User: What shape does this take?
Amino acid sequence: MHITILKESEIRQCVALNPTSIAAVEEAFTALFQGKATTPIMSIPVPDHHGEMHVKSAYIQGFDSFAVKIASGFFDNPKRGLPSGSGLMLLFHSETGFPQAVLLDNGYLTHVRTGAAGAIAAKYLAREDIHTVGILGAGRQARFQLLALQQVRRFQRVLVYARDPEHVRAYIADMQAHLGGIPIEPAPDAETLVRQSDIVITTTPSTTPIVRAEWLHPGLHITAVGADNGYKQELYPEVLARADRRVCDLKTQVFRLGEHMFALKAGLLTENDPVDELGELTAGVKLGRTSPDEITVCDLTGVGIQDTAIALLAYRKAKEAGLGLVIGS
Amino acid sequence: MHITILKESEIRQCVALNPTSIAAVEEAFTALFQGKATTPIMSIPVPDHHGEMHVKSAYIQGFDSFAVKIASGFFDNPKRGLPSGSGLMLLFHSETGFPQAVLLDNGYLTHVRTGAAGAIAAKYLAREDIHTVGILGAGRQARFQLLALQQVRRFQRVLVYARDPEHVRAYIADMQAHLGGIPIEPAPDAETLVRQSDIVITTTPSTTPIVRAEWLHPGLHITAVGADNGYKQELYPEVLARADRRVCDLKTQVFRLGEHMFALKAGLLTENDPVDELGELTAGVKLGRTSPDEITVCDLTGVGIQDTAIALLAYRKAKEAGLGLVIGS
Assistant: This one.
């Protein structure tokens, strides 16, 4: 039995937030909609250390391999100068169940596949002619989401808001180089950011809602990336109720873990209210945005099919490039 | 960030079925009973290839590290000359959630920790003076269970029964060398084996029950290892109903996945009927066997605390021995 070990530096050589990775994740969403995937998730609480682990996986029919992804969030790490998030992915052979590869990506591939889902949401749901982009949060995923959006839309201005102005300054300094002269500015507050933007991407770990329904305006698209565990929340439930169109990555999951869960709890939505899945858009059975004035919201919680798609892409590219350490049993 | 990769050959140098590994698993059961552990599990069905993955984990308060174990069962593998089971374990730092080690054990550590649980069950529940040991099944776990029992009981004779006489012959050939002259013989059928044995260990992947209540006799102890997924079953439900004493690894789990689940379904037990957990015996709050004539049954489904205990033991021993490949990020 042989297993390939890939390091983060090798994985970064193979996979970036580009049309290839977005297409791989899009294909996986289509398979999910077509009923070809099972997507179990599991959490391991580590309360003594203010941490939690999330395990996600998905076998997709017809795929040679499937991933098991283990991602961590340990919220005391930043006090020690360490990132709160980490993790790795494993690939297994679909035919035998044997381990195929260990991807020591330190969470990089999760950022790419989450960015890719954001790109897909924007591709189908944002207006074609967006002027201003608003990014709520200034962490790693805020960076990936902006790079992702660039793959599917042109825009003229970026606003960013986060509670810590130091983080905002660092974000602007980092991202400026990627924007080819497009101005990127701090917003004075979340309200100004939402009111002035054509697309808003929320990427915070907030556990109290930020975006209010009063701030919504015709033509706005919001992608909410932060809520994924049943207590993180970025949108007031009224935002979902007021949207003309609600889309998500996986209904059964957003009803339990995402922004939709809070709207259900608040009695502002029921499970019978219309919510489409990204896979319905990528499969072409539902339309994306249907008018320039629609208010659209996409609730992303992260699905194992994204991990399987991105891990398999990384593995194939690494093999093509002759990368990785092969260990015999 | 550094991560240690351990191969099966290195792991085998560090961990065997001996008093050290049994003590480590026993300590973990005590912690489980004391409420110091969370033990999530997850399954990934791969129906196209007649396979399934099982993910188990447990964070145990006060332990430096915790394991995530991924084990596979792909039942078409033997047709191709491959083992049906495989897998690996991962260790994570309890304080930061960072990956610490990848244990490429191909399922070896699962066999050891399952054997260790069997040893603990026999230590507390089998009679001191057992004469004949009956092993149902002739696979890898049948081997580990017999080695485990040797650590806690002396005996004079071993009977083995499995459907395939070829497997029985191979088992006897393999195990003879470990038994120091104690005779090991094929039993003509499961009934003879159970009737003639003082302890019976069932290790089959059977999905239809084998052991009948009529075969039970005073003083018998049965440890059932096979049922762990909600459809595997080795004991008729009447066996549990007729036992004087029922013990298990984890009540909430055996009620869903183990032999107890079938007895509940059959209406022969309720969730209020007495069932003790191994951790109550190892913690000393409940007695083991209380009379030579009791009929005792232990239902083992496998708990993540066993994986955490054994993976941590393997990692520590490997570090002491300077084994393993360290990869920087």
